[in-house]
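Key result, reporting period 2: structure in, sequence out.
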């Protein structure tokens, strides 16, 4: 239930965030010195989020009459957790390149949260307590960032036309985030159709280790995005930032790849245990994805969003993603989990080829 609850939480977060983690960051980075424009953008964004909140409240009220008490203990905290995480304006502070204090407080809060989980969670059916603690930690972090915004900026009621324009502006980034999450869930669903529990356990174990290293790429990418968005109209500066980003993310991805590839057996033994020996072979293949993803984040996400090619990028991601799901369905019955690993690597190479083609010919 805890895994399902976290999946629900992620989907609610994507709805509430509605592309702010990229498009909101971009619009704030480009107008950071224009107090009036930032105030207007924040007003539009949070009025839309308020409407989403009303919808979520209605959904929760309906679920109370449909689900059992046992399920409600998981589902409702998961929904609220996703909503609160989506309300967090961390993207605004990322655009301002002002996250030092937040980073420290976030680390301390999460350590306290982890300590509370260790202290209170004693049984397997106490997963709902984990959700409650995560909810409280995220609520604190959200309030910590929201209060200064309410004090610093003027809040105005946007017109219906302005709200429609905001929704249209953020929709491509929302679809991009939504399909990325959907693709991951769909891949796991297909995996469950064709392979047994043991193979799924091996794959999930390897993927968790790989995702830890993948998590090292995301903070560096987010830290470099504001500068890329601010200087998107200056070709010389933009090119310097892009080279700097490629070196930074490429280095992180390549080093992570070598560490995983060389020490895969030791990592699996230390983190997963002896029973997961086969996960080491899966992990070696998945390690190749790290440098490819790092490069694609720059030549794809950073460059396309900097050039306002949101719609084009979303189309590419959706089309290639659908082809990938079809390929997985064909490969899995014959090759099992090893097949899906090579399919993931092939998909990253296809993305890189498409991004390179579009950027080279400036299409």
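The corresponding designed sequence is given below.
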């Amino acid at each position: 239930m805890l895994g399902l609850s976290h999946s629900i939480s992620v989907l609610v977060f994507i709805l509430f965030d509605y592309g702010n983690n990229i498009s909101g960051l971009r619009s704030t980075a480009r107008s950071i010195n224009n107090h009036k424009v930032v105030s207007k953008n924040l007003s539009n964004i949070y009025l839309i989020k308020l409407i989403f909140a009303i919808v979520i409240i209605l959904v929760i009220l309906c679920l109370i009459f449909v689900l059992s008490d046992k399920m409600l203990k998981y589902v409702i905290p998961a929904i609220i957790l996703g909503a609160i995480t989506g309300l967090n304006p961390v993207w605004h502070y990322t655009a301002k390149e002002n996250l030092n204090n937040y980073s420290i407080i976030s680390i301390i809060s999460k350590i306290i949260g982890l300590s509370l989980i260790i202290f209170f969670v004693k049984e397997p059916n106490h997963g709902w307590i984990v959700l409650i603690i995560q909810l409280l930690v995220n609520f604190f972090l959200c309030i910590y960032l929201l209060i200064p915004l309410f004090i610093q900026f003027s809040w105005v009621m946007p017109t219906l036309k302005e709200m429609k324009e905001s929704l249209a502006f953020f929709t491509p980034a929302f679809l991009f985030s939504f399909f990325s999450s959907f693709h991951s869930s769909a891949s796991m669903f297909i995996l469950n159709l064709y392979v047994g529990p043991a193979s799924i356990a091996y794959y999930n174990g390897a993927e968790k280790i790989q995702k830890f290293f993948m998590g090292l790429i995301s903070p560096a990418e987010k830290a470099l995005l504001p500068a890329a968005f601010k200087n998107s109209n200056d070709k010389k500066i933009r090119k310097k930032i892009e080279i700097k980003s490629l070196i930074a993310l490429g280095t992180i991805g390549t080093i992570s790849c070598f560490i995983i590839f060389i020490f895969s057996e030791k990592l699996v033994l230390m983190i997963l245990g002896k029973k997961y020996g086969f996960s080491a072979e899966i992990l070696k293949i998945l390690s190749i994805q790290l440098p490819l993803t790092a490069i694609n984040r720059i030549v794809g996400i950073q460059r396309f969003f900097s050039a306002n090619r949101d719609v084009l990028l979303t189309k590419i991601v959706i089309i290639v993603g659908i082809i990938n799901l079809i390929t997985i369905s064909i490969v899995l019955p014959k090759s099992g989990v090893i097949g899906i690993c090579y399919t993931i690597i092939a998909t990253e190479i296809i993305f890189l080829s498409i991004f390179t083609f579009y950027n080279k010919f400036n299409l």
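The radius of gyration is 21 Å. The chain has a mean pLDDT of 85. This case is discussed further under Risks and Mitigation.
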